[in-house]
Amino acid sequence: MATALITGANRGLGLAFTGQLAKAGWRVHACCRMPEKARNLKEIGGDVVRHRLDVTDGLQLAGLGRELADEPVDLLINNAGIFGPRAGFGQIAYDDWLQVFNVNTLAPMRVAETFAPHLERAPHAKLINISSRLGSIADTTTSGAHIYRSSKAALNMVTRCLSIDLQPRGVIVAALHPGWVNTNMGGRTAPLSPEDSAARVLAVIDRLTSEDSGGFYDNAGDVIPW
Ligand SMILES: NC(=O)c1ccc[n+]([C@@H]2O[C@H](COP(=O)([O-])OP(=O)(O)OC[C@H]3O[C@@H](n4cnc5c(N)ncnc54)[C@H](OP(=O)(O)O)[C@@H]3O)[C@@H](O)[C@H]2O)c1
Questions:
Q1: Atom of ligand 1 at shortest distance to CA of 11?
Q2: pLDDT value of position 1
């Protein structure tokens, strides 16, 4: 049986990834800040193990790494993320910027460092960072959302470096844009449901080979320019 670990699994895309993988017979380590309040997550059937994890909490993360020390992880999805304030030039909230970087950029790196041994233990393991097209510098023609955009652009660089770090261990690493999705973050007018987006992203993940490692892809598997 294959095993996945997902951060931010209590709602939105993380919940949809968890539900679909569990339905497909995976064991899923579903991580969230408050598992006792994760009602929707509790309702998912199958082999779902809930864990308490605030991705910015290094001690909690190290503890979870030790707790799962004997388990190979075939798929790790760094999904947890925040948007932060949208305000742009002249109104930047610098403390919030640091917090967004902490969650969106530093935490995925720390999660990757913690679970690299677990990934190494699985044959053909994959580490996926849920990024955003908003992090594409090449695609940016209007300003705004500096905080979120820069956190995901930096996550893209982290992804590329990790693909090199983990290549000798046989781990495929990629950054994926899930589309514009109807979640708390994406808002009600977003065209894609979390279920549709998760299904597309999981299909792309399934097709990734070592040749794709280090890339940035949309939910159809097409390359997004950096
Ligand atoms: N929705 C979109 O249109 C869209 C587009 C591009 C990329 N993305 C990316 O997709 C990912 C999932 O977003 P979503 O749309 O599903 O957003 P969402 O519904 O707002 O869910 C965000 C998830 O991240 C968790 N989270 C936030 N801070 C955390 C922390 N410190 N530790 C652990 N978990 C934390 C939240 O947990 P709590 O419930 O505890 O807050 C929640 O489970 C994010 O990385 C986002 O940037 C989304």
A1: 43
A2: 86
Model's pTM, two decimal places?
Answer: 0.99
**CA–CA dist 74, 132 (Å, integer):** 23
CA 40 to chain centre: 19
Smallest CA-to-CA distance from 44 within 29, 55, 54, 34 is with 29
Report how far residue 55's alpha carbon sits from residue 15's, in angstroms, rounded to the nearest whole number.
Answer: 16
Mean pLDDT (the chain, rounded)? 98
CATH assignment of 3-217, among 3.40.50.150, 3.40.50.1240, 3.40.50.720, 1.10.287.3510: 3.40.50.720
Q: Which of 5, 6, 10, 13 to mutate to test the pocket of ligand 1 (most atoms within 8 A of CB)?
A: 13
What pLDDT is recorded for position 122? Answer: 98
Instruction: Enumerate the domain spans of the chain.
Output: 3-217
Using alpha carbons, list the distances in angstroms from residue 27 to 105, 207, 209: 26, 20, 22
Task: Report residue 89's pLDDT band, with 50, 70 and 90 as the boundaries.
Answer: very high
Sign of the C-alpha dihedral computed for residues 139, 143, 148 and 153 taken in this order: positive
